[in-house]
């Protein structure tokens, strides 16, 4: 710009700016009764509805250094339950020796409000974790595979094949109890140990998880190295094996590529996107780098595309503000950062 | 289908530094531009011939212009808000200039205290002089996806201003999402309107990352055939309208994405990151580039 005006005090407030834009409308009261994943927006070729899976309380907090007190976790989840988010990953039934942040999994599971229409999946790495989760009241679980042998070995000390066998036990018990299981595939676009990961491998692992009964496969760019190019190639391979409606993308923003990658995925028909409020969760493989993409930034983009999510952006920003205050950190969401600083502040 | 090649226009030394709080000493600016000249970038916006009263950061425009290595094959455009600035720029050795219009009346009024129409009349003088001196002129249109004063901006208005500037003789029109508020939806809508009036080969996008949307917006622009993208090394330059928020998209993050798409830029990402490290150290600030953050733990 030619000059630097002392613009701040004359600007529209962020509320005005955001409310006024067509794409930041009030969300629909609830998501469509039966969202049709194949249904496209008239002119744009994009889905009409996208399900956001909020992973902040689990994936996010798990990768935050500061241990969050149980009551703060519960408060965060309760606030997220009021935003319209259809799925909130609550905690992980993993040994507290491995993941101290998730040591209070039972208390969290039992302590949260359960809003009708909202799913509260939990991670269950094995049968023991699964039983513990069910005893604590879980009604949906997730299992984590990886498309990289090295990652599998370093992360859970067994081969991909061995991990699949463990998950099959979980899937079997879950089936008997009518508990849905979500499958994650880590390192879908690259591995911190192996480097390049071939799309065929991602397709193969995804297929194993899907065949054992996972209702949805979330493809994770664990270290955020993917770009729209690699995202497209990977999805093309996976889509040969798994129906589009059963796929989700879980993008990390470590290299700033997350939204571009998510856009690519939804252009290809993906209708489920994982994200983390305030972009909680750093990257354990690149110190100081960011991890999860921020839910606020994803919703902002989807709103701008005229895609319904059922989520109230302001309420998510408020929940993000709450947890960042509790964690004494700045938000990783650019939308939140811009909104809480533009013109007049609240 | 994506373009096979994209021209990256580096605006860090001008748009970036202009929006940084700390005034950067002239030798540092010159080193920055010289380092950028080694990265493979073909266009580096060097400075702005605007009154130092308005933009103290650019007060050393003549020294910078005269002090940098002008590498053959690289263009070093400078901003020239009026005829006086243009003449000073040419005297200092500039071979390409840029002029700034806006798609918002209120923004123009607040920014340069006149209407859009009046601003274009002022630029006409620059265009005439530039034509006579055989100096190419790049035109910027600000607020193409939203205005901090007016709010919503109609794509038709952006198309109208772009057309005028193109007709006046600007060889390229850079469409700027000045407050970063745009999304792939509004980017598509705006480009559709503009592309009816200006050939896509003469269009560039200048996206701000204030709401984290820049790369997604750029992706859509590329999908629509735009092959010139502005960016700022290390994501230099905050947003004057949202205190503490970010501004320009980081060149490193852009190049990373283009590399991943197999699009040729000619830019060496490592050298670019090193340049970003240099200027961030000089400014005593953290980089805004996520690629740099991930690679170099900056």
From TrEMBL, chain A:
Catalysed reactions, as listed in the record: (3S)-3-hydroxy-3-methylglutaryl-CoA = acetoacetate + acetyl-CoA
GO cellular component terms listed in the entry, alphabetical order: cytosol; endoplasmic reticulum
CDD domains according to UniProt: DRE_TIM_HMGL
EC number: 4.1.3.4
Keyword Metal-binding: yes
UniProt entry keywords in alphabetical sequence: Lyase, Metal-binding
Classification via Pfam families: HMGL-like
GO biological process, one term: L-leucine catabolic process
All copies of domain Pyruvate carboxyltransferase, residue ranges: 50-317
Protein name: hydroxymethylglutaryl-CoA lyase
A GO molecular function held by the record: hydroxymethylglutaryl-CoA lyase activity
Similarity-based family: Belongs to the HMG-CoA lyase family.
Lineage: Eukaryota, Metazoa, Chordata, Craniata, Vertebrata
PANTHER family according to UniProt: 3-HYDROXY-3-METHYLGLUTARYL-COA LYASE, CYTOPLASMIC, HYDROXYMETHYLGLUTARYL-COA LYASE
UniProtKB/TrEMBL annotation, chain B:
Pfam families tied to this protein: HMGL-like (PF00682)
Pathway where this protein functions: Metabolic intermediate metabolism; (S)-3-hydroxy-3-methylglutaryl-CoA degradation; acetoacetate from (S)-3-hydroxy-3-methylglutaryl-CoA: step 1/1
Location(s) in or outside the cell: Mitochondrion matrix; Peroxisome
BP GO annotations: ketone body biosynthetic process; L-leucine catabolic process
PANTHER family documented for this protein: HYDROXYMETHYLGLUTARYL-COA LYASE, HYDROXYMETHYLGLUTARYL-COA LYASE, MITOCHONDRIAL
Entry-linked NCBIfam families: PRK05692.1 (NF004283)
UniProt name for this protein: Hydroxymethylglutaryl-CoA lyase, mitochondrial
């Amino acid at each position: 710009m030619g000059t630097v005006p002392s613009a701040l005090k004359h600007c529209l407030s962020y509320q005005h700016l955001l409310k006024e834009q067509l794409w930041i409308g009030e969300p629909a009261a609830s998501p469509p009764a039966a969202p049709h994943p194949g249904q496209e927006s008239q002119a744009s070729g994009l889905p009409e509805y996208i399900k956001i899976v909020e992973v902040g309380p689990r994936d996010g907090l798990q990768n935050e250094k500061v241990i969050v007190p149980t009551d703060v976790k519960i408060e965060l989840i309760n606030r997220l339950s009021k935003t319209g988010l259809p799925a909130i990953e609550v905690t992980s039934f993993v040994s507290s020796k491995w993941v101290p942040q998730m040591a209070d999994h039972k208390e969290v599971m039992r302590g949260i409000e359960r809003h009708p229409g909202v799913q509260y999946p939990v991670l269950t790495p094995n049968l023991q974790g699964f039983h513990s989760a069910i005893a604590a009241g879980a009604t949906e679980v997730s299992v984590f595979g990886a498309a990289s042998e090295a990652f599998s070995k370093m992360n859970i000390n067994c081969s991909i094949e061995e991990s699949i066998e463990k998950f099959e036990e979980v899937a079997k018990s879950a089936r008997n109890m009518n508990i849905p299981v979500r499958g994650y595939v880590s390192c879908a676009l690259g591995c911190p140990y192996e480097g390049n990961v071939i799309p065929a491998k991602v397709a193969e692992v995804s297929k194993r998880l899907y065949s054992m009964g996972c209702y949805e496969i979330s493809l994770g760019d664990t270290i955020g190295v993917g770009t729209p190019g690699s995202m497209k190639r990977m999805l093309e391979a996976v889509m040969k094996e798994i129906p589009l409606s059963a796929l989700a993308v879980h993008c990390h923003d470590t290299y700033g590529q997350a939204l571009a990658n998510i856009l690519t995925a939804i252009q290809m028909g993906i209708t489920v996107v994982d994200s983390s409020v305030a972009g909680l969760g750093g990257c354990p493989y690149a110190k100081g780098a960011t991890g999860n993409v921020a839910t606020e930034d994803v919703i902002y983009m989807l709103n701008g595309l005229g895609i319904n999510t059922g989520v109230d952006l302001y309420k998510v920003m408020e929940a993000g503000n709450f947890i960042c205050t509790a964690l004494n950190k700045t938000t990783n969401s650019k939308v939140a950062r811009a909104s809480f600083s533009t013109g007049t502040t609240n | 289908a994506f373009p096979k090649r994209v021209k990256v226009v580096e605006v860090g030394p001008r748009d970036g530094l202009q929006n940084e709080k700390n005034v950067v000493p002239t030798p540092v600016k010159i080193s920055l531009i010289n380092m950028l000249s080694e990265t493979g970038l073909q266009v580096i916006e060097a400075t702005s011939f605007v009154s130092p009263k308005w933009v103290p950061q650019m007060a050393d425009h003549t020294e910078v212009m005269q002090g940098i290595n002008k590498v053959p094959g690289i263009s070093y455009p400078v901003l020239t808000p009026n005829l006086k600035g243009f003449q000073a720029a040419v005297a200092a050795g500039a071979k390409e200039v840029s002029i700034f219009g806006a798609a918002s009346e209120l923004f123009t009024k607040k920014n340069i205290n006149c209407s859009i129409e009046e601003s274009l009349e002022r630029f006409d003088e620059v265009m005439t002089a530039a034509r006579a001196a055989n100096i190419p002129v790049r035109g910027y249109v600000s607020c193409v996806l939203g205005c901090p004063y007016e709010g919503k901006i109609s794509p038709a208005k952006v198309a109208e201003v772009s057309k005028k500037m193109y007709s006046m003789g600007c060889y390229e029109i850079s469409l700027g999402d000045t407050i970063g508020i745009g999304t792939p939806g509004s980017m598509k809508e705006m480009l559709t309107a503009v592309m009816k009036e200006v050939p896509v080969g003469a269009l560039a996008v200048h996206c701000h990352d204030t709401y984290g949307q820049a790369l997604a917006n750029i992706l859509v622009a590329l999908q629509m055939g735009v092959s010139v993208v502005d960016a700022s090394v290390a994501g230099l330059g905050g947003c004057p309208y949202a205190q503490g928020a970010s501004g320009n998209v980081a060149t490193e993050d852009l190049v990373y994405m283009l590399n991943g798409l197999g699009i040729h830029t000619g830019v060496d990402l490592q050298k670019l990151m090193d340049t970003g490290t240099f200027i961030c150290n000089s400014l005593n600030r953290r980089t805004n580039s996520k690629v740099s953050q991930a690679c170099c733990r900056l």
